[in-house]
Structures are given as C-alpha cells and as structure tokens.
Design the sequence.
C-alpha cells in the first residue's frame, strides 16, 4: 500500500475522488434534512430518496455495460459534469427561495440517472490504475478516503446547514430549527457539493488509465445480451451469488434506516438534530477509516473463510440500529457506529479485492454494476417501505429492521456456499 503514495497518477485520482466524496456526504446529509425540514414527513424523505434511487436501479446494469464498451474514466468525466449542473441548479433554487418539494423530486430524479452510470465506473476503474498485486492496497486507500470523507462531510454539512451550534440538548417542547431558519444553510451545502464535482472532473483530466485487453474477433452483441452474460456468470458462481444476495438483504434493511429513520429519530430527540445526526454518521466514518487502513495493511481471511467472516461482522452492524433506539444518548450512538464502521470497511476492502481479481476483465464493469445494484439498487423500494414503517412506529421499525439483519446474516454465514470463495475462477 505504501508504494501507491508515490504513484502520482493514482494519487491524482485519489485526491479528486476524496474531495468529491466529501461533497457527496454533505449532500447525503443535506438531502434528507432538506425534505424533512420542508415537509416534516419521514415518508416523503423515503419517497424522494426512492425517486433518486429508482432510475439508478433500473439503469445501473446498463451503466455497467456502457462502462465496458467505453471506459470508466470517460463515463466518470461525463457524469461529473451532469451532476455538477443538477446540484448547482438545486442550490440556486433554494438560494432564490424558489424551491418546492416537486422541484426537489425532479432534481433527485436527474441525479439518480447520472448515478446509474457513475457508480459502476467508480467501482471498476481501479484495476486500470494499479497492478493486480496492488489492488488490495488501492481498494484500502480508496475506502480510507471515502470514509475520511464520511467523517468530515456530515459534520461540515451539519455546521453549514445549522450555521451555528448553540445546544445539543433534548428538544422537548423547545424550539426546533425549520426550513426557513436553515434555507441559506441548505443552499450553501449543495453549492459546496457542486464545487467538489468540478474538482473531481479537473483531476480526472490528468489521470491515465490502462486500456483493457480486447478479444480478437469478438462479435458485438446487444447491450441486453451483454448484461445477461454478466448475470449468468454471477449466478453460476455460488459464493458470488450468496455474497450478492446477502448484501442486498443487509443493505435493504440498513441503509434506509440510516438515511431515513435516524434523521427522524434525531429530530425527535435533539434541538440541533442535523448536527447530532452528522456526528453519528461521522463516527461511523471514523471507524470505517481505521478499518480500511487495517484492511489494506494486513492479509485478510482466506477465500474460503471470507464470506463467513463478512456476514458475522455484518451482524454487529445490524445490531446498532436497535442499540441506538434502546439507549438514547448520542455519544452511545457514535460509539456503536464507530465499531460497526471499522468492521464493515475491513470486510469491504477484502470482498471488493476478491471480486475484482476473480471477475473476467471484459465483464468487470457489468459485474461491478450488479454488485452496486445489490448494494444500492433496491434502496428505492427500501426507502418507501421503511419510510411508511417509520410513519407507523419509528422506534419499533428500527428494532425490527435490526432483527432481520442479524438473523439474515447469521443464516448466510452458516450457508454451505459461504465456504466456496476459493472456487471462483476468473473465466467467462
């Protein structure tokens, strides 16, 4: 991993993406906060995230096919320009006091379409930047940058939105900041996010990637057939199949509570709820930064033990949702999220490296898009379902989601296919 710090090409890429991810996590905090402040409805928070996620889910597999046909770098350049335009438009609408919930939904929809192509590009570009024996260190550094951004992004976002932190006491019957109080803060948050896309675009202009090997005489097929080819490969690898299905269930019941349920819980419990929520997410990012660093420096589990270790660690992640409901202080939430982040990121370094090394190069963009689909593609449905559940009973729904994650990951860890990680071969 140390030698990559001397690789100017890789570090140029890393710096641009780090700045971009900082902006992403300002936006990740600001989007649900904006909708919640405008509507005071967890269900609408889930709905706007679903509107953003639905086109991403529908187009994600085709996004991977586009990446395989062209290049991850080219796709990232184009989508950075589009996302810059979309987020700056939203910032201007809020600044000019022209924003409505309908326009927020429209921007979310456009952003989701761009994400469908950006996501598979970011997860498949690394093998074209580093040597195969540097993939583990490269993935670790990318994730370290991502989670370092998780530490700073939400805290920065919370401060930008709130403007000034006066208290983190329980709200009770006291004042709770609303949309009008924080409107300029929301505008600043999205404007800064837009600038980070510009930084990422500029750095990518100076990044050089290795061209992938082209098979001689290979016939061009339709994009639908190309997607089917990757799906067949994934399904025929028992370990990959189990890992993807388990991750889909985990993310369905974890991400929606994090981005829909926890903001609502913080709003119920604290005056400066955006700042408190930012601290909780930042704590997860701090643990994840350490977990990524350790994952890059130390040898991971053997392939036959990787999935079992992954699901056992994910049990701890799932339990955090119930733990923060049962014990109220935000410091406790920060502590358990720190531990969960450390375990999750350590696993992701090794799982991502394992998947990249075993995926045929010509399928890499499509397989990584399937991976991203399983991780985030179902979130539109999750956000709608969990948003309605939170309207019914916020705390009970968080505890139920926690129990589902724990039981699912336990079953996956004990499944016989969890021992077949060494059997995956890099052949189409």
Sequence:
């Amino acid at each position: 991993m140390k030698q990559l710090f001397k690789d100017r090409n890789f570090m140029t890429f890393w710096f641009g993406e780090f700045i971009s991810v900082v902006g992403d996590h300002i936006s990740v905090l600001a989007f649900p906060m904006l909708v919640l402040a405008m509507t005071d409805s967890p269900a609408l928070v889930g709905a706007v995230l679903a509107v953003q996620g639905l086109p991403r889910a529908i187009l994600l597999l085709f996004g991977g096919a586009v990446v395989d046909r062209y290049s991850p770098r080219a796709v990232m350049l184009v989508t950075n320009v589009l996302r810059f335009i979309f987020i700056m438009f939203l910032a201007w609408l809020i600044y000019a006091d022209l924003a409505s919930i309908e326009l927020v939904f429209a921007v979310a929809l456009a952003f989701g379409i761009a994400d469908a192509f950006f996501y598979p590009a970011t997860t498949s570009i690394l093998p074209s930047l580093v040597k195969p024996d540097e993939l583990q260190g490269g993935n670790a550094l990318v994730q370290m940058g991502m989670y370092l951004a998780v530490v700073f992004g939400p805290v920065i976002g919370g401060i930008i939105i709130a403007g000034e932190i006066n208290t983190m006491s329980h709200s009770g019957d006291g004042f709770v900041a609303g949309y009008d109080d924080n409107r300029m803060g929301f505008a600043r948050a999205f404007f800064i996010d837009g600038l980070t896309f510009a930084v990422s675009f500029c750095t990518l202009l100076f990044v050089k990637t290795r061209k992938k090997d082209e098979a001689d005489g290979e016939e061009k097929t339709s994009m639908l057939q190309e997607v089917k080819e990757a799906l067949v490969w994934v399904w025929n690898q028992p370990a990959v199949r189990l890992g993807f299905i388990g991750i889909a269930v985990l993310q369905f019941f974890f991400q929606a509570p994090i981005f829909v349920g926890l903001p609502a819980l913080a709003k119920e419990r604290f005056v400066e709820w955006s700042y408190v929520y930012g601290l909780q997410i930042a704590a997860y990012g701090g643990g994840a930064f350490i977990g990524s660093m350790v994952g890059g420096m130390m040898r991971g589990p053997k392939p036959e033990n990787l999935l079992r270790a992954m699901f056992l660690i994910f049990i701890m992640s799932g339990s955090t949702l119930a733990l923060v409901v049962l014990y109220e202080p935000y410091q406790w939430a920060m502590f358990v999220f720190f531990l969960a982040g450390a375990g999750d990121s350590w696993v992701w370094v090794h799982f991502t490296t394992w998947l990249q090394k075993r995926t045929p190069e010509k399928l890499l963009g499509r397989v990584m898009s399937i991976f991203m689909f399983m991780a985030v593609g179902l979130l539109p449905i999750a956000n709608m379902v969990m948003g309605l559940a939170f309207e019914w009973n916020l705390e009970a729904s968080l505890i139920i989601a926690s129990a589902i994650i724990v039981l699912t990951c336990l079953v996956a860890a004990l499944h016989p296919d969890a021992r077949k990680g060494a059997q995956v071969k890099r052949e189409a």
